[in-house]
Specification:
- Helix content is 2%, strand content 44%.
- The chain is mostly beta strands.
- The chain has a four-stranded antiparallel β-sheet, with no helix packed on it.
- The longest helix has 6 residues.
Amino acid sequence: MSGAAHTRTRTSNQLRMNTHHPRNPMYSSTAYSTVLPADAPQFFAGLKTREYREHRSSNHSHTSIRSIAWNILGNRIACGLTDKMVRVWNPEKPEIRNSTELKGHTMGVDRVAWDPTHADKLVSCGGDGMVRFWDYRSKQCLAITSTNGENISLAYHPEGSVVAVGTKDDKIHFIDPRNTSQILKTHKEGTQTNQLIFSHIGDTLLLTTGQGHVVLRDWPSLEHVYTVEAHSSGAFCLELDPRGSTLAVGGSDAVVSIWDTKEWICQRTLRNMESPIRNLSYSFDGAYICAGSDEPGAVNIDIANLDTGETVHTIPTNHPVPNVAWHPSKYWLAYSGDPLGLKIVGAGGP
């Protein structure tokens, strides 16, 4: 692995991502202090899991969760479902009658994302080509924008001013949530594009590609800034830690690479998994990371310490775990893959 640059258009200092993730002042990120690696095995082993069931066990129909996302306050979590809807849960109330159903998609919902500036608003997209904006309190779709493509990736700008939607034909559409009647602009990548995110300060768009690269583009010009040759085969997912000092990249080679965003040097690789990495998540303090895969046989969730790369705890499962998502201010870990529905480690108490 190497961090070679191609057509760099900013100085090294301008490439730095290590700016804190913008936080809503309505909540504090000090619900937990950082758990030291020496204490982590006992701490995580003591957390209890709460289930959020989509169906009763006697119901043989199967609804699969394609994506999960916490809102900025951590008091709601949304699931994009194969049965054409979004379900919003209150993590304190696991009964399905207390959840909120957002209906309107005509195909499965592949991606959900919350407005980073408003704890009650979110956006969803899927194979029907529609991007739907919601206020979950009213259960109403506020607006709809069509990309005329199969939507596979979704990201909010940290200021909430733009939503980026990637389609299967490697186009990226940018939508202004305040004016959804038309697409703001469309960019065509020259290679297979998988996931996309904005930097924490919103001046850079980061993309994973089928060539194993991470491409950095300036926002809003979309000019090429830097290319990180992260993996030798396809790169599927990526996430910046809350401080923006490291970038995690998951690939088809079953490896998670951790990159320093100041010098773009690979700090370490996590190689505990045996299947392609489809999803990544950092804990709220950036101290721990875990990954998910949807491949058959890809069971269990390994929680690794970011500084050492060592696994501090393994959450046992008997199924693949395609989605993992840490709570924004607590050591709660939500994950999907269980046929019965969502699970949140930590929500059941210490």
